[in-house]
Structures are given as C-alpha cells and as structure tokens.
Amino acid sequence: MHNNYKTNIPEIDDKISSLVNNHFALENRDFLHQMFTSVAKIGLESSDTGELKLLNCNIKELRYAFRVFSEYLEIRKVVIFGSSRTPENQAEYKMAEEFAQKIAKKNFMVLTGAGEGIMEASNKGAGKDNSFGVNILLPVEQKPNKFISNERLINFKYFFTRKLVFLKESDATVLFPGGFGTLDEGAEVLTLVQTGKSKPRPIIFLEPEGSNFWKEWNNFIKNKLLKNNYISKEDLSLFQVVSNIDQAIEEIENFYSVYHSIRFVKDKTVLRLKKPVPNETLQKINEVFKDILTDGVIEAGVPLEDEVKNNEYVDLPRLIMLFNRKNFGRLMELIRFININVA
Predict the structure, then answer these.
(1) In 7, 81, 123, 141, which residue has its Cα 20 to 30 A from 97's Cα atom?
(2) Cβ atoms within 10 A of the Cβ of 22, count?
(3) What residues have CB less than 8 Å from 324, skipping those under 6 apart?
(4) Cα→Cα distances 273→71, 260, 276, Å
(5) Could you tell me the CA-to-CA distances from 34 to 20, 31, 41, 57, 94 in Å, in that order?
(6) Which residues pair with residue 110 across a beta bridge?
(7) In this model, does residue 324 exceed pLDDT 80?
(8) Whole-angstrom Cα distance, residue 252 to residue 9?
(9) What pTM was computed for the model?
(10) Strand extents, DSSP E, the chain
(11) For 98-122, how does the pLDDT look when each residue is reduced to its tens digit (9 = 90+)?
C-alpha cells in the first residue's frame, strides 16, 4: 500500500483505512485507499464547486459505463464513427448498415455515438442485441436512435470520458466519412495507438466505391505529414483505407486470428497468442523485426508473474520481448506477420 499517500489529517486517514480494510477485497485495497484519499484531498483543497461537480459527474458516468460493459468483457467489439448528417438514402448509410450487420454475424458487437446518420445505420444493421450507444449530452439535445436498447445506452456530459470508453471497450475502429467529430475520433485513435497509450487494433477508414473522401485524406497524410517528417513511414501501417465491406471485415477477423492481446510488464512486452509460434517462424520474426528491440531476441515464454497473479489468460502461448515501445507501426506489422505466418 502507498502509505505515504495521505491527507495528513489523522482522523480522516484513519477513517479511510478502516473503510477500505473492512469492506473491500484485499487485492483492490491499495487502489481504493488512494481513490478515497484523492476524493478527501480535493474536498479539503478545492473551494471551487465547479471542479467538484466535474469530478463527481465523471466518476458516476464512468462507474455506470464500466458496469454496463462488465457483462460483455469477453465479446470483441467494433466502434463505428461517421457523420450524424448522413441521410438514409446515401451510399455511406447503406454501407454502414451492411457492414454492421455482417460484423455482428461474425460475433462482434457494435459501439456507436448513439446518434443519427452513420451511427443509426450501424446500430440498425447490428440490431439491438448487438449494439451499444455511447451518447453525448449537448446543449441542443442529441437524442439516441431507436436501434439501441436502454440497457446498453450510456450518456456522457463530457467528450473526453466518452472517448475513453469508446477506446477502452472496443477492439477495432471503423470510420466512415464525417465532419469534425469523425476526424477528431480518427486522429485520437491513431495518436493513442501510435504512442502506445491504446492497445494495437485494426483502424479502418471505410468508404463506398467511387468515394474519394478517405483517399484524399490519405493523400494528405502521405504528401504533407510523411513528406515533412511529421510521421514515420511505419505509421502508415497503423491504419487502412478500404472501399469494400468484406475486406474490412477480413482485416478485423484476421487481426485476431492468432494474436489475442498485449501486456506490458515492466520492461517486457508480452504478445499473447491463440497458437504457438513454430521455431522456424520465430527465427524469421527475429530476422525481420530485430529493429524494434532494445536488447535480446523475441522468444516464446510462459506467463509472467504479474499475469499469473491476475490470472490473465495463463493458458495461452506467448512471445516475450524487450520492445522499444516507440515503433508501434512496426509492432502492428509484427502482429500481422504472426497472423499470416502462424497456421
């Protein structure tokens, strides 16, 4: 326990310790002790009611969101972004509906921002039983579309907590053409995966045949960002621009065909897999991807102590390496290499 993290008011500190020690599971006490202490500290330090309202609102909304999603943790999910202004008769709307319908049949659930346009099309395609709506409360009310059940509708006051839930609770991101909000979500997910703040995932910019929306955006990325060294060439491996629904679904399915999940434990990076990597393939992996290591080699291994302690997929095979935690575009390439070459 972080014994030095206190309010330094003995009466308050003793009550927090008593509350935590008497009412909560041992493995969670350290975190809860810090959380209760933080709440007490801000109550003592802040005279700004607005700050307290902000903190209170976000804690309550996140708690509710975590509870809603807790029943579906083992089901992979795709978050779909796109314009709320896309009409029902437009090709993008029909494509979003068909994509969501097909990805739901592959046993993925769908998250949207709960509004109209692309969001409505996606929830309609996936159906209520496979849909979540993560709604934002705006001055001009955005009403949730009719294809989301109340049990899987979550309302947020602030964009930043809403964005956190979109990324935390999903395994792939698909973006249809849209406005500022769509571009913001696309830039954020790329930034988070590029910097390792979000786990690797398929990021797909999807548009109908004949549309140049994402193609022109991709040209801007290459001609302005890459040519000016604002990004690295490997960053282009973080995403794909696609004009075919089946190709988008194949990319998502393939990404999780062998790769299961990632875990960072101190200086080690663990790739958990559904199948063991043959020695010959592992040798090739080390030849191709030695540039992303700070030392040593990529090797098959057993669950690390922290993984065993938390019972984190201890039955799965693993690759363990000293990844430099910088070249995440290359890490995406490594995951795809594993998926292709491990039968």
Answers:
(1) 141
(2) 7
(3) 292, 293, 294
(4) 24, 5, 7
(5) 10, 5, 10, 19, 48
(6) 78, 131
(7) yes
(8) 52
(9) 0.95
(10) 77-81, 109-112, 131-136, 153-156, 172-175, 203-206, 240-242, 259-265, 268-273, 293-301, 318-323
(11) 999 999 999 999 999 999 999 999 9
